[in-house]
């Protein structure tokens, strides 16, 4: 730290308990009381340097103990007046960044101007401030920290503003260009030219370049009012928003202990990981700090990590922050919800009612903010895209990621027995249909909810299952749903129907692949005879055999499904006759079959064509006839 020595005499002051004595050999003729300390001094050195002391000495009445003066409001208190008294006596005095603000304010308070001696305290401290302190980052920071104790005087003398402006200018400039003592606490000393010093000798070596976050730790040592002013000054100087956001994040983590508990291992290993001091702050002060951080954070996507924003939101809910603060944090998270993880969304419910284990309402609002932003930025509508565009379009990636995230969240909160059906349905239905390429995740969440809420009626179960589209279930999900006793009968029938269609489509595709492999095998066999027998040919044969085994198993599964559908049809027709309904078309309408008959005929035709190509036919001719009747019934229904 830079310093400057004033005066030439040796220290002639001695302290005895709560009193200071001047040991010049002459008896003291004045006593100055400052706080709990008394100073036994002489009138002349004081009145020759201070206009205020001159007036007080003239007004003071001498009693039995001589002249007594009480100074109750001197900036810096007794410690600062001790330095002032030594300055008046010409004793050696060292000016530093830690005491210059106190002395400058005390000199102003005591009116120690040039009219009372050349090189008086005001001029000496001003020179030191301007020529030494304000040229150094570290000294400017230290001087600014001391302004908190004498803020009214420092503001009047514009010391606070000068220190803040000095720091703001240095923060937006590369410190390596000027060799500021910014890196004194993290690296070697530098010469004014910027080279590294060894025993005071310039080595010519240049220090490593500092990153843009070099000032975060220093700035976090300021009180919140001064820190806010520093951030505002940096913004006016053109410091980038992401750098400002990084400093705010660092400051919040340092003083809000709840954020440090959620800090990941990678963050904790960072050299800039802050040390939590939040235990020294009351809950009220933490709440005020959190609201100020939210106010200062730029409202821009991607500047702040999503995990940090969730940490702020959870802390705000715990501390009962203002509704506007909570709403702002939810909007910030909604802007970048696609960057969140399932762990982030699982926020406990901190309300007094404790209706649910997790705060589902908060997640619902965050999702609504995200969807509103997505539509505002030109998000695609479900009518203007198809499945291939959905899977491959980069602009739709965020919405599909959020849909997958919400489905996972629904599966996590579904076991909560206190989670009401309308709230579960509202969150699931909030995700647009086009955002889910597959409904497997939604089916899993619905299944868990039905398992955890066995008391739901049949109508509620059907209403819940309408959230998913059976046509968007994978083959594995269809197989599971067809055997799921928790699903309503209507849903099971729909699942079986669409599963059969998927199997037929898969078999048709396998036939095409098999034909291509057979043709390729013949070409491979004719081209490799006499050159490399066994290598590529053996591999092709094995792959062909594996495909044929797979097709055989699919045929068996299709046959089983056809028998199940035939049995179900007979049972339903019996029920229909007992109620006066004998047509399969009414039953199909009841169970919601909406696919056109041409789809079934197209699938059946592709399978039959492939059977002809391979020289094979289905053994069971009756099964084919049943499918033809089934197709006609579906077409009648249309």
UniProtKB/TrEMBL annotation:
Residues 602-613 have a biased composition (Polar residues). Pathway: Protein modification; protein ubiquitination. Residues 617-626 have a biased composition (Basic and acidic residues). GO terms for biological process: protein ubiquitination. Residues 627-638 have a biased composition (Basic residues). The keyword Coiled coil applies. InterPro entries: BTB/POZ_dom, NPH3/RPT2-like, NPH3_dom, SKP1/BTB/POZ_sf. Residues 28-97 form the BTB domain. Residues 213-502 form the NPH3 domain. Residues 602-638 are annotated as: Disordered. It comes from the Eukaryota. CDD domains: BTB_POZ_NPY3-like. Keywords: Coiled coil, Ubl conjugation pathway. Residues 551-578 form a coiled coil. The keyword NADP does not apply. PANTHER family: OS12G0117600 PROTEIN (PTHR32370). Belongs to the NPH3 family. This is BTB/POZ domain-containing protein At1g30440. It comes from Nicotiana sylvestris (Wood tobacco).
């Amino acid at each position: 730290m830079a310093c400057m020595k004033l005066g030439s005499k040796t220290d002639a002051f001695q302290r005895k308990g709560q009193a200071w004595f001047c040991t010049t050999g002459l008896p003291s003729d004045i006593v100055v009381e400052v706080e709990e300390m008394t100073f036994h001094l002489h009138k002349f050195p004081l009145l020759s340097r201070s206009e205020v002391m001159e007036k007080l000495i003239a007004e003071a009445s001498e009693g039995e103990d001589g002249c007594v003066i009480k100074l109750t409001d001197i900036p810096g208190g007794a410690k600062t007046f001790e330095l002032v008294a030594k300055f008046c006596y010409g004793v050696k005095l060292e000016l530093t960044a830690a005491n210059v603000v106190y002395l400058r304010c005390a000199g102003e308070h005591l009116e120690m101007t040039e009219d009372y001696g050349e090189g008086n305290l005001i001029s000496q401290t001003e020179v030191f401030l301007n020529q030494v302190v304000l040229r150094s980052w570290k000294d400017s920071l230290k001087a600014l920290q001391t302004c908190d104790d004498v803020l009214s005087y420092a503001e009047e003398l514009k010391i606070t503003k000068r220190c803040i402006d000095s720091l703001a200018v240095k923060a937006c400039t590369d410190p390596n260009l000027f060799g500021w003592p910014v890196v004194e606490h993290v690296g070697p000393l530098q010469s004014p030219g910027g080279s590294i010093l060894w025993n005071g000798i310039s080595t010519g070596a240049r220090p490593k370049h500092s990153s843009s976050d070099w000032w975060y730790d220093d700035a976090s040592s300021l009180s919140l009012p001064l820190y806010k002013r520093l951030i505002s000054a940096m913004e006016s100087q053109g410091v980038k928003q992401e750098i400002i956001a990084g400093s705010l994040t660092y400051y919040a983590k340092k003083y809000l202990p709840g954020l440090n508990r959620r800090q990941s291992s990678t963050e904790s290993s960072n050299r800039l990981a802050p040390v939590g001091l939040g235990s020294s702050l009351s809950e009220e002060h933490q709440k005020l700090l959190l609201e100020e951080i939210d106010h200062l954070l730029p409202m821009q996507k991607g500047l702040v990590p999503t995990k940090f924003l969730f940490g702020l939101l959870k802390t705000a809910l715990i501390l009962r922050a203002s509704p506007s603060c909570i709403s702002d944090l939810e909007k910030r998270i909604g802007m970048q919800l696609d960057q969140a993880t399932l762990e982030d969304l699982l926020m406990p419910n901190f309300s007094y009612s404790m209706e649910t284990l997790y705060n589902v309402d908060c997640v619902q609002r965050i999702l609504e903010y995200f969807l509103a932003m997505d539509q505002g930025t030109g998000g695609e509508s479900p009518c203007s895209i198809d499945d291939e565009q959905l899977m491959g379009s980069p602009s739709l990636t965020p919405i599909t990621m959020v849909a997958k995230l919400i489905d996972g969240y629904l599966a996590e909160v579904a076991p909560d027995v206190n989670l009401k059906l309308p709230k579960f349905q509202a969150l699931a239905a909030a995700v647009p249909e086009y955002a889910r390429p597959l409904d497997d995740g939604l089916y899993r969440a619905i299944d868990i909810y039905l398992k955890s809420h066995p008391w739901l009626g049949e109508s509620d179960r059907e209403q819940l299952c309408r959230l998913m589209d059976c046509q968007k279930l994978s083959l594995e999900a269809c197989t599971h749903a067809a055997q799921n006793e928790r699903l309503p009968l209507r849903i099971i029938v729909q699942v079986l129907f669409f599963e059969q269609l998927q199997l037929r489509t898969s078999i048709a595709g396998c036939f095409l692949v098999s034909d291509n492999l057979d043709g390729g095998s013949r070409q491979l066999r004719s081209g490799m005879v006499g050159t490399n027998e066994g290598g590529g040919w053996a591999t092709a044969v094995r792959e062909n055999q594996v495909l044929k085994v797979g097709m055989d198993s699919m045929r068996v599964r299709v046959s089983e499904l056809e028998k199940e559908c035939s049995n179900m049809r007979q049972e339903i027709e019996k029920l229909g006759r007992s109620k006066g309904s004998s047509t399969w078309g009414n039953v199909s309408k009841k169970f919601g079959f909406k696919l056109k008959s041409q789809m079934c005929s197209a699938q059946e035709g592709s399978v039959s064509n492939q059977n002809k190509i391979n020289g094979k036919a289905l053994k069971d001719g009756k099964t084919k006839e049943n499918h033809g009747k089934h197709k006609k019934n579906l077409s009648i229904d249309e």
